[in-house]
Amino acid sequence: MSERLTPGSVTLTQLRAVFAGAPVALAPGWQAPVAASAQALAVRLEEGVPLYGVNTGFGKLASTRIPAEGLAQLQLNLLRSHAAGVGAPLPADVVRLVMVLKALSLARGASGVRVEVVEALLEMLALDTRPVIPAQGSVGASGDLAPLAHLALVLVGEGEAAGPRPAPIVLGPKEGLALLNGTQVSTALALTGLFAAEDALRTALVAGALSTEGAKGSDTPFDARIHALRGQPGQIRAAAALRALMSGSALRESHRVGDPRVQDPYSLRCQPQVAGACLDLIDQAAAMLGREADAVTDNPLVVEGGEILSGGNFHAEPVAFAADILALAMAELGAIGERRIALLMDPVLSGLPAFLVRDGGLNSGFMIAQVTAAALVAENRALAAPRSVDSLPTSANQEDHVSMATGAALRLAPMAENLANILAIELLCGAQALDFHRPLTSAAPIEAAHALVRGGAAHWGEDRVMAPDIAAVAALVRAGRFAALAAL
C-alpha cells in the first residue's frame, strides 16, 4: 500500500514506511503552488532583477551576471561541476529516502521549479531508479551540494544509476540550484540513524531486563514512585517499560525475600536513568528531524506574494545537532550494556559460573565475546565525538561557517551496527544466564526474548565458534524482533 504524503505535513511514521520500501505518492493539490512559484520566478526574470543562482554565478561568483542565453547552460554546468563526491555509494534505501525528501521540499511551492521537476523525481521513485551517490563530499551547508548533484544528473540523463531511467528533462532557470540546495542527504542519513536508535533503545531495555533476571537482580529500582520524584519523562517511561517486561516473573519472586544483596550495581539499578536520558535525546532528535523532513531548505526562496528572498535555510545545523545527540545516545546504550555483560561474566557479582559456562578453564565461554563488546564500545565512544562544533570555511570564505551535518549523520550507521552487535552479545549472555536458573521461568516478554535468542543460537554447553551466534542474534536485533517486545 502506497504512502500518500502531504508536503509540509509528513510524519516520521510515514517516513519509516518509505524507508522500508513502501510506494510513494503525493497527496493532491501540490501542483498549483509549485506552478505559481515557477511563474513568480519567471516574472522576476523578465524584470531583469538579479537573482542568486538564477541569473548570477554561485558562491563567491554571485556578483557575476549571466545573460539570458546562458541560463539553461548555467544550471547544467552547476550539476556537472558540483558532482564531486567521493567514497562508497550511499545505500539504496537511503538514496530512495533522499529522493522522497527532495520531492517533498520542492512540492511545497517555494523553490521556483516547474511541476515537471517534481514529477520527474516521482517517476524515478516509481521506476525504482537508484542514482549512485558517493557518500562523502558535503559539509552540510549551501545544502548537500555534491551528493545532490549526483542525484540531479540522473534527471538530465547523465550520471550513474542502477535500474531503469526516466526520460531526461531540460532544466529551467534555478532548477539545478533547487535540486542541489537543501539538506535532504544529511536528513535522510540522520533519519536512518534515528530509526536504528529507536529500535536499539527498545532492544536495550529488553536486553537489560533479561540481564537483570539472569543476575537475579531487583526490580525495586524500577518502582514508579522513585521516578515520579525526579520527573524526567524518558526515565519514567523507561522504568515503566522495564516493569512491564519483568512483571509476573517467577524467577524474581524466588529471591524477593532473603537475598543478602542490598543494592545491585549501577548497570542494573540505574537502567531507567540511563536509558531514559537516551530516550529523551532520541525524542528530541526525532522532533528536529521531523521538522527538517517537512522543510524547504534551498535558496533563494519564492515566498508569499511572489517575492524572492535569499537566505540560509540550507545550513544543516539542526541536522548536525540531531545526529550528534543520536550518537551520544547510541554510545551510552552500548556502554551500559557492555557493563551488564561484564557483570554476568563475574561470579562474584552474578552468582553464575565464570564466563557463563560449566567446566571453566577447559571452556572459556563468553570471555572473548565480552572483549568484542568492549572493543565496539570503545569505537562508538570515539565516533560519538561531536561533529557540529567542527567548521571549515569553503567557497573562498563566502561560506565561512558550515555544519558538518552530513559527516555527523554518516557516522550513525556504523555506530548502529556496533550497537546491534553489543546488544546481541548481551542477549546471548542474558539467555545463557537464564538457562542456569531453570526450571524457574521469567516474565512472558523475557521468555519471548529468550526464545528468540535460542532460535538463532543454542545453549553454550561447551566451547564452539562464537561469531555465528553473534551474527544470528544481531540480525534479529537489526530486524527489530526484540524491540517489538518493549512498549514505550
From TrEMBL:
Which Enzyme Commission number(s) are listed?
4.3.1.3
Question: Pathway of this protein?
Answer: Amino-acid degradation; L-histidine degradation into L-glutamate; N-formimidoyl-L-glutamate from L-histidine: step 1/3
Where does the UniProt entry say this protein principally localizes? cytoplasm
**PANTHER family in the cross-refs:** HISTIDINE AMMONIA-LYASE (PTHR10362)
In the record, the note on similarity to other proteins reads: Belongs to the PAL/histidase family.
Q: Does the keyword Lipoprotein apply?
A: no
**Which species is this record about?**
Plastoroseomonas arctica
Report if keyword Cell inner membrane is assigned: no
Q: Name one GO cellular component term.
A: cytoplasm
Q: Where in the cell is it found?
A: Cytoplasm
| Top-level division of the source organism's lineage | Bacteria
Signal sequence, start to end: none
What keywords is this UniProt entry annotated with? Histidine metabolism, Lyase
Reactions catalysed according to its record: L-histidine = trans-urocanate + NH4(+)
Q: What molecular functions are annotated in GO for this chain?
A: histidine ammonia-lyase activity
Q: What is this protein called?
A: Histidine ammonia-lyase
